[in-house]
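Worked example

This section walks through a single chain of length 526. The input is the sequence exactly as stored; nothing has been trimmed or padded.
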Amino acid sequence: MAENEYFDAVIVGGGTAGCIVAGRLAERGINPKTGDRLRVAMIEGGSDWSIRDPAISPGYGQPIRRRMTVNMNYEAVGPEGKGPGYQWPYGGENFRLVGGCSVHYGGNTFLQNEEDIQYYREASGVSWTYGDLLPAIEEVKEMYHVGPTPEGQWCQAVQLFNDAARAMGYDVQPSPVARRNCLDSGFCGEGHLCRYDAKGTSLPWAYIGLNNGLKVIADAEAEKIIIEKPAGGRPVATGVVYKDLQGGMHEVRAARIIVACGTNGSPLLMFRSGYGPRDVLGTKLIVENPNVGENLDGDTNSNTPGALWPEPVRPPRGMAGFTLFTVRPRPHKELAVQMRVPGLSRVSGNKYPHQGALDEFAPDFGWSHKEFMKRGGWLRMGRITNRLQTIPWKWRVKPDGHEERVSIDEARMNVAIKEAWDISMELFNKMAIKPLKVSSRMRLANSLTPGHTQGTCRAGESRQVAVCNSDFDCFDIDNLLFTSGASMPRTTFCHGCGPIAVGAAYAWRRILENHFTRGSSTKGFA
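Given that input, the structure is written out below as tokens.
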């Protein structure tokens, strides 16, 4: 074990949330005992090449990020941006690199509205209000550069979708996206890092931290949080044990430890640390809380029905646009369905030629398949996403990292799935250019799995329903805090990366006020 280092704050996880919290605490926090500038470290299991360049340059990029992004081959990055070098071995959507999922997400950035906050409050009794989160929402909107998709990017497929939906009485809106000075290269959808720094990410906060003394400990996988139980006192978190690339073990000590390892990673780290449900940990239990790893929630694409048109409906490159509508008007209720059309292109199976070649509408093999692809047949294919939100189901993270379904209202979900499918078929039928073929494969509720998952170490009113309080302090262990998707009470209408970033932007404000300002507790500080 390497010699201990001491910090005022250690953030475990350098992803979407970790970068935001680490950057702001390094910039604005002080040691409440001495008044000195904070000593802050951020431990990240992946590499830090994403922040080795001197700055973020939207629309231009920087040499290291551009070179690394271009040199990533398909096998290394994987079909959705994650592969052996970047994907964690357990389930979930995290990304093993400083910046986390914010560097590979599609750029679509939905931020919380009043209904989302109400669903948070109903899920766990968290005390947040929309007014509380509004400064955090504005911070993320500004830093990520969130705005509508420019109409100039909308291809014919989007126009067909928009016209048909409006003819059916739906309120079609452009998707909010996080881009600045975008060159519209088309290689920034799900799974791609932006070689031109145009896509909004959490990396700017990491740079704020670096400019204020933040130490980034990269290629360092956290093994456990050190939890001590003093005689007659409450359990307290005092340090982190991590492993480097060569397998060497290291230990850091800190006055405050903030776990930001994502929806799946955070409970797994807690399990390894002896914190969680008794029936999961058995003799390894140090501190019990039955909610660690529980309450996992997510949205899902129920179906992505596709069609084949007689002529190309989208360009060979470029983003092609992204519009949407929700089947029911606001206020959105449980089991809302969002109909999305990312250019009828950036969704499952037919983003690029090699994927279109295996699409259900492509000829199976032989000369006809060659001619179909040679003549750009994949540009004639597209899909409409049926995304279910605020779903009546519950999942958990098991000790092996896999997600397990706990409950599901299958009957209600299937009604919503069938309704969305029927609307999709009507949309195809009402388009000015009629498809030659339409999908006939419909998936039902029992086959669906969650995405944009959240809630496994959620904030709430008490340890009976949550792991941390509304200020992100652990109920059971002093000096231990949580942020990331794990601390959000549930997945709502606003999807994944955006609300997680907002949660972190709110978290740093509460953590700063409660722990790193004059007058806050000095317990645990050197």
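What to look for: Residues 148-175+299-392+420-449 form one domain.
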